[in-house]
UniProtKB/TrEMBL annotation:
Name recorded for this polypeptide: Glycosyltransferase RgtA/B/C/D-like domain-containing protein
Coiled coil start-end: none
Swiss-Prot/TrEMBL keywords: Membrane, Transmembrane, Transmembrane helix
Membrane-spanning segments: 23-41, 48-67, 87-115, 136-159, 225-247, 254-273, 293-311, 363-383, 414-433, 445-464, 470-490, 502-524, 536-556, 563-582
Organism for this UniProt entry: Dactylosporangium roseum
Amino acid sequence: MATATIVPDRVATPLPPRRRRSAWAPALTLALAVTGLLLALGTSPLDVARYAAYLGLGVVLPGTLLYRSLRSRPHSLLEDVAFGTVVGLLAETVALVAFRGLVWIGPLLVIAVFLAVPRLRRHWRMPRYPERPSVVWSWTVAGIALFFLGYLTVAFLAVNVPVPVGGPRQYMIDQLNLLAVAADLKHHFPLAVPEQGDRPLRYHWFAYGHLAAGSLSTGIDLPVLWFRLDLPVLAVLTVGLFAVTGWRVTRHAWAGPVAAALMFVVGEAVLPAQAPAFFGTITAYYTWSSRSILYAAALTMPFIAAAAAVLRREADRRTWLLAVLFAAGTTGAKSTVLPLAGVGVALVCAVHLLRRRPSWTPWLLGGAFAVVEVFAVAVLYGFEGQGLSWGPFTIMLDFVGDQHTGTTPADLPLIVWGLGAYAIAMGARLAGIVFPLRRWGDVELFLAGALATGVVGSLTVWHVSWSQHFFIIAGWPFGAILSAWGLVLLADRIPDRAGARAAVAVALSAAAALAVFAVTASVPRVPARWGVPLPTYVFGGVVLLTALAVGAGLTLAGRRRAALRGTGAFAALTVVLFAGGARLPHDAATSANLGVRYHVRVTPEQAAGARWLRDHSTPAEYVATNVHRVGGGEQARQSLAYWISAYSERRVLLGSWGYSPESAEMQSARHRLGPSLVYWNPDRLAANDAAIYAPTPERLEWLRSQKVGWILVDRAQGTESPRLADLADLVWQRGPVAIYRLHPPPPR
């Protein structure tokens, strides 16, 4: 693997026209692939065109202009566009808060200012970029993005329709809950728990604000944005950001594509069908189940690049401003990112003290991060803990210990045994960290500290909904860059490019063989708990032997053929890094949309009723309902039915409460997993249901006092009183779903 050479502008030789044009081919291919995918999935061509226009004119263009005015010097066109898009996303968030339904005013103001102010007009011109990615580099990044798009299509996009028609559809519960969050942000600010009336929701909501802004600006149906348009675009953007940031941070062009591949192509080094649940995942499942994961990964990339520039003392005031800006953005994208980065900077400070060469730079950077974090905890999160508590190794509770009491010292041998398998499965992609980095500088320490903190956080924190996984997920981008850095430094030791290409071909062929083995092999399970991690140990042993064999073979070949000299260690490390290549394809093929587990069934009648409400009510009018629980399947008793607020874009007075902050705190205090089955205010719940099942004028007046203008009844969960039709107007009915409109209050 060869690194791209950076040629200073003053001696750069103009590329021949044909080669210059070919550099755009990967980007055009990706654009055509995304467009073709969306059209093949039945997306309206007009919606595709409107969303493309909005992204280009409302996010990318103003963001790129703003980024060019803030960065110290140009690096590459791809960086300007990629990092500028992130700035555009943050500007979009500001516009959503400031202008609400007139979000488009924000980008128009930016464009107008950059046209009107003479000093800013120069940012419209294309600068001379010192870095130009090679065509091979560009096609490699495009290939990674296409692979990731393929996974997302099979695992999520192809199995979810925006709105159920023709029959019931199974939706993952989290999808409709988060869609309801985006719907609430479309019409209200500050954000509230969508099915708890006015109860404020302290949450990292920037990803869902992005969807709300897109719907407000284009008029595109929010479910179409959620289940079709947004995810493919965000996926391609994030792959590009990884590639650019890996290059910038390591100063090696190929570290970028390798880091992107370690994040979006390679999975855990396991036999997928026999992997214990406590391993979690990094890309599989999480990249589509929680939109904030991918959004936060995108915002983390320029944040890492700016922090690395500061730690290298290459930063002027503009770079410091970008570091703080991106730090603030990550707090609203995912709450776990900035604390990990802060610990990474703290590690740099500690090492400086130990080496007796202190510098003010990391201390100032850490102080800036601390100020941003305190502000986020106070303003965004309102000092709410969201149910997090201390719980060593509770991430492994399906393997060791008790789900009510946690783990005990007696479980330590089994914990150690499980942690070994955890290190094999999760750590194979991080093997590049330990190879060639002989003397770590501040940037390497920063990346390693953030990664290590993510791992420690996942292993020591307990949460009612297994959200401790988000610590290691937030730390993974730091580790992917560091691991890719190690691989390309080994590649630099190979004297011949042809030898490097041969080593890559051999190593990836071996990794492909391991992927086939992973999906076809079956290790007999031992009934006892001690046997659960055994398949991972077996696969880890096979990977290690394969890597050693490939490395030894190329080392011997290098003694006879000079071109292959130095390829042994590089090829062995490549085999280890890419050994988990079967994880994502296997997940897409066998567990698309997570099967039917943790799903809610939504019928066309239910969706049609909710959407009728959206079209005939105002956001100021709340909805009362008898729908509190899923009502079918394994989750029948759980209060996790969010389809009303998701499809109606209206706040529900008291619907489902499973994802409310009170539910998380209650379950955390009881040390119970999952959402609370009981509501913490039974009198309020009784008053809500009595207005439907035993209505009186006084009870309906109470609903009106709570801003309720409509009642949606799902008779599958209980039939309303016949008297309700006398006290309110039955305005819509289809199947078991009926909608009543409350009479306006009498004049006083």
